[in-house]
Amino acid sequence: MNPTLQLTINGERREIALDDPRVTLLDLLRERLDLTGTKKGCDRGQCGACTVLVDGKRVNSCLALAISLDGAEITTIEGLAVNGALHPVQAAFIAHDGFQCGYCTPGQIMSAVGLILEGQAGDDPERVREGMSGNLCRCGAYAGIAEAVIEAQR
Ligand code: FES
Question: For the 2Fe-2S ferredoxin-type domain, which residue ranges apply (predicted)?
Answer without folding.
Answer: 3-80
